[in-house]
Amino acid sequence: MNVTLMDYFPILELPEEIQALVVERVAGNSFTDLYGLRASCKTMKALAERSRVNHFYDVLSVPRRLNMPPELFKTCYAERNPSTLYMKGVQFFFTFNLQEEGLAFMKLAADEGYERAVYTYAMTRKIFWGDEEYFARFTRESVVRIGKLVRSLKWAWGLSHSDEFLAKRDEFISTVVPSFYSCQCVPVMERDWVLWYIENSKGDKMCNRCFWIKELGLFFREFEPMSVIMDTREW
């Protein structure tokens, strides 16, 4: 027997404006669940097809097997969808070297509360301008979780970072990483001067400064620019 969300949660008994809010929240949480809800009845299908819903998709969480059509990215961007603003910001900043425009797009997505954007914007501000303001928005647990999510996205397709980013990384390794190992906040378990194993070098009780050095090291090591296979300038 097929059991659906409708069997557990009688959405159709709610006022229409509440039904619309439910659909929007489902769109933000799971693309797959939205399609299941959309297929459940004509009312849900109509609500799911409203243009407003396109604002809430996290296009970076859509399973690749669904092959999201390129036109849907444009449609979502037209609705100021935070995940598409983030994509545009990352590509403009790290791929096209349009730093002012890219940073502005990332900030728009961050101000919408899009976690990937808040994290990447915070790291970018720190690396390029020494600004740590956004670090205060994270707990250690949240930055570890979101950082893994952001860095797991492999979309460079052979594209390398800019010379400026690589120079910042080399400067970080030569001037900041040594202070990570010289700090005596906790014992050093393993030394690594080129970021390969920096996450294994100290325990969880390290001081706040060392924690952020470790997170910046992971960003330098694993974050990829976005290839031009999908050119967000066309949106």
TrEMBL record:
It comes from Brassica cretica. It holds the Pfam family TPR_27. Residues 72-125 form the At2g35280-like TPR domain. It comes from the Eukaryota. PANTHER family: F-BOX DOMAIN-CONTAINING PROTEIN, OS05G0482100 PROTEIN. InterPro entries: At1g67623-like, At2g35280_TPR_dom. This is At2g35280-like TPR domain-containing protein.
